[in-house]
Each structure stands twice: as C-alpha cells, then as structure tokens.
Amino acid sequence: MISIKSIFQEILKHKKVLLLANTVAIISTLVVLPVALLLPLLIDELILGKGGEITSIIDNFFNIGEPMYYILIVLFITMGLKAIGLVFSLLHIRLFTKISKEVTYTIRKRLLNHLQVVSMREYDLLGSGAVASKIITDVETIDKFVASSVGEVVVELLTLMGVSIVLLWLNWQLALVILVLNPVTMFIMLRTFKNVAKMKKKENQSIETFQNTLTESLELYNQIRVQNREKYFLNTIDQQAKEIRDRSYLFGLKSEIALEFSRLLIFYSHDIFKALGIFMVLIGMLTIGKMLAIFSYAWVLMRPVDKLMNFIHLYFNAKASIERLNEILALEKEPHYLAQIDPFEEKKSASIVLKDVSFSYDGKHQVLSHLSLAIKEGEKVAIVGETGSGKSTLAQILIGLYPIDEGEIFYNDIEVKKIGYEKIRDHVGFVLQAPLMFNNTLRFNLTLGREYADEVIYEALKVAQLFEFVDGLEQKLETIVGKNGTKLSGGQRQRLSIARVLLDNPKVMIFDESTSSLDDATEKKLLDALELYVKDKTVITIAHRASSILRADRVIKL
Ligand SMILES: Nc1ncnc2c1ncn2[C@@H]1O[C@H](COP(=O)(O)OP(=O)(O)OP(=O)(O)O)[C@@H](O)[C@H]1O
Ligand SMILES: [Mg+2]
Q1: Cβ < 6 A, ligand 1 pocket
Q2: Among 41, 158, 217, 264, which has the highest number of CB atoms less than 10 A from its own CB?
Q3: Residue nearest atom 18 of ligand 1, based on CA coordinates
Q4: Is this model's pTM higher than 0.85 or not?
Q5: Tens-place pLDDT, residues 504-514
Q6: What per-residue string of b and e applies to 425-459 under the rule 16 or more CB within 10 Å gives b?
Q7: What architecture does CATH give domain 4-329?
C-alpha cells in the first residue's frame, strides 16, 4: 500500500541527489540572506550617520568617501548576490524535479505492475476509465505534493530559520512578535485545509466516474448507435461533466478562499508587526535603517510561510489521492506459482488431466462440479454441451485465467502449480470465443508487439485462410483494422485470431467456437489446413456445429 511514509522512503532512496540538492539549497539561501540587510543599513550609515560597518568595509577596498559610490557599490553587491542565488536555486530546481518525477514514475509503475497480476475475477469488475483516472489524476495530485515536499519544504524551512536568526539579531523583541504570529496563523489554517481536501477527493471521484462512462461509451459507440441511444448516453455523460464542473468549482473556490484567507491573516500579522516597528523607532528602541531591514526580512519571511501553507494544503490532497490509489493496490492478485518444472520441454504436445475439478466465478454457483477428464498427448478432442454449460469456462481455467476452487490440473503429469501459468500460456494457445482487436495494424494485432519475419506471418495467415485477403489489401500487414477490428468482417476477425495463436506455435491448442462465423466451404478449407498444422499437437475444439469439429478422436459432452 502507498502511504505518505512509503513516499518519503522512496524519496530517501535518492540520497545522493537529495544531499546535493539540499547543499545547493543551503548555499542559495545563505547567499541571498544578507541581501535584505545591506541597502536598509546604508540608510543609517549615510543619511542618519549612525553605525558605519558597511562603509568602513568598503573603504578598506576602495577608499572613496563619496556617498553616491557607496550606494552604487552596495546596489551591485546585492544584485550580484541575488544573481548567484538564482543560479544555485535553478540548479536546485533541476535536481529536485528529477527526484520528484522519478518518485511519481515509481508510483505509476507500482500500480501498473499490480494491474498486471490482478486476478481476472477482479478485472471483470474494473472500469478501465476509473483505473485510468486514478493512475492519471491522483498520481498527478501526489506529484504536486512530492514536488513541493522535496523541492520547497527544506529550502523554505532553512530560509525561515536563517531569517529568524537575522531578525533576532537585529531586534529580538520585534522578531519574537513575528515569529509567534506566523505559527499561530498557520495552525488556524490547518483545520480549513483538511476540509478542502475532502472536496478534492470528491472532485477526483467525479472525474473517475466521468472518465469511466466516457471510455465505455466510446468503446461501445456502435452498439449505442444501433439501439438509437446516443441521446441517453450523451445525457449521462453531460450530467457527469456537470458534476465535475460543480465539484471542481467548489473545490477551486474553497481552496482559493482558504489560501487567500490564510494570506490575509499573515498580512494582518505583518501589519501589526510593522506598526509595532514604527512605534519602537518612535521610542528610540530601533533605528530607521534597522526597522526597514526588519521589514524587508518580514517580507522575505512571507514566502516560506506561504509555501509551507501550500505544502500542508497539498499534503491533505495527497492523502486523499493515496486512499484512492490504494483501492487499486487492494485488488486481489492472481495466484503466482514459481516455474519449477517445464513439462513442455522437448515435447511436441502435452497430455492434460483434470482431477475432480470444481469451479465457480462467484463462490456460489458452481459452473464446473467435480469434473475429471484425461486427454492424451497429441489427442484431438471435441467438447460439446449446451450453451452456458461451462465450455469456455473450462478452457479458461486450463490456462489459469481463473484459479480453480478444488481439484488439480496436470500437463504431462505435472501439476500446474509446479509449472506456473506463464509457462503454460507460452505453450497452450487459446483462440477466444470473442477475440478482441486493437485499433492498430494487422501486423500488430497478429504479433501483439512480438517480432516475427514476414514469411512466418504469411505462413500463419495461409493456414488461417486469410492470406488472400491480406495480400489483396493495399497496405497489406500495415492496414489499420479500426476500433475493435470493425473494418474486418466477423469471420475475418475469427481467422485473424486463429493466425495470432498459430504464430506462437503452441503445443496445445484450444479453439473456442473459432469458426462459427465462417461459411461451410471456408471452414472446410481452414480445418483441412489446420489438420496438417496441428498433426502432433494436442487440440481441444469447442463447437456447436458438428462440421466445425476437427476430425476428433473423442467427443466430450459437458
Ligand atoms: N466472467 C464470468 N463471470 C461470472 N460468470 C461467468 C463468467 N463467464 C461465464 N460465466 C457464467 O458461467 C456459466 C458458463 O459460461 P461459459 O461461457 O463457460 O459457457 P459456454 O458453455 O461456453 O456457453 P456458450 O456455448 O454459450 O459459449 C454461465 O452461466 C455464465 O453465466
Ligand atoms: Mg462459450
């Protein structure tokens, strides 16, 4: 689970850069610290004739005595110091931005890694838009917090300390006033920010709902058009957009009010402090130059106080986002078995044995109940059974998409727990009943990012009876198939998904209603070509039509 603590542990992993960044930050703070002091003190020395430290230091080097030159020299020094401070502060920004982006990247990666192993049961219930929204919006919220914490908090705390020391040195009574007033105002703000953070959570929730409906509606737009339901769906999306508008408005407004209100409090405390300063000059406890210097420092003090307040604000927002991200990490994982034995090595196919297997999707309704069966190496079996009898389910548990509740499954007499599902999916090819396509090229849909020579791809296409179709296309393998393969016919999609599995050259093949959309002649050609291809492999064919069943050695009825 992610927590503020784990985020800081992640930040601390970058010790070297962090150390460097903070050293640079200290230098930039120290360099700029005297700037607010120099010109105001010159007022005392040149106009009121009090003190004389700065002029005497300059005299050591130049020996001029002309007030005009003192002013110019001090002006150049302050400008120079500011410029040097800026260089260091830019360097610091560069270093900490790197850390903060690295940390948010790690969080995103952790979420993605978890999604990769989330159990299919949980996956079935996930809205892709909702997950996307969390990974984008909430991680962004954390990003702001991390940037503020590594980038600003240390520097600002340092500035706060440095300025406090100078202030105490200049006049401790007046310094105490401002140093007490600031924390008091900050404490008042804490409570307000907590409330505002709740609104941030609500805003992100509405973004999530919106993104979920939007993604799903766009995915299924065909279906919506067919049923003439555009108005209804657009209306729903519009309602959700309105909710985002209202909640963002509330959050934006309240957080601005909270921030402005806190700034006002700080301005007030500063005005009280300035009034006190003038009073102290009046009764002779302070010189005008020192008063002006103290005023400038009080001004310098504003920034760290403001930034620290902002940090607290971001902290509460980040906490709300962390809660939402942990919802992803709380999703149950798929059981992971270490690959101990490879039963497929040096084999052309595999035997499959199910012993007393029971399975239910929801823990209540058993889809498979005490099923036992044995398929020999290289055997071709057909599985038939009425619709809803669990044929696709059986195929899915064979490759471990869903873990079984009871019983055991063996490949070449090795229990699946000793093989690991990764290995199994490498060698067991499964043509899904309803294959899905990416809105990408034919090549990508066939290879899913793996590298194959064109000849190999065309070979698979030939077996799948798709070669002539692809060869006739102007852009051949580079043709885009459209969203969910809409530019292809149902039968072309089926054959594409067969070719996709053939490319892997698996040792066991499972066809789930893979030729249901083909005409009899094409189906026959495909089965003939396949027969040769799968000669040595173990094949499970699920089909309703007798004609679709590859010359099976055995028919199993579920
Ligand atoms: N992902 C799922 N989550 C929950 N229940 C499911 C899921 N998939 C299928 N089921 C249920 O399991 C039962 C068996 O479904 P399955 O898809 O295995 O049937 P089938 O024999 O392949 O049917 P068909 O011939 O129509 O393809 C059905 O009652 C179905 O409602
Ligand atoms: Mg099915």
Answers
A1: 124, 361, 367, 385, 387-393, 433
A2: 41
A3: 390
A4: no
A5: 889 999 999 88
A6: eebbbbbbbebebeeebbbbbbbeeeeeeeeebbb
A7: Up-down Bundle (1.20)
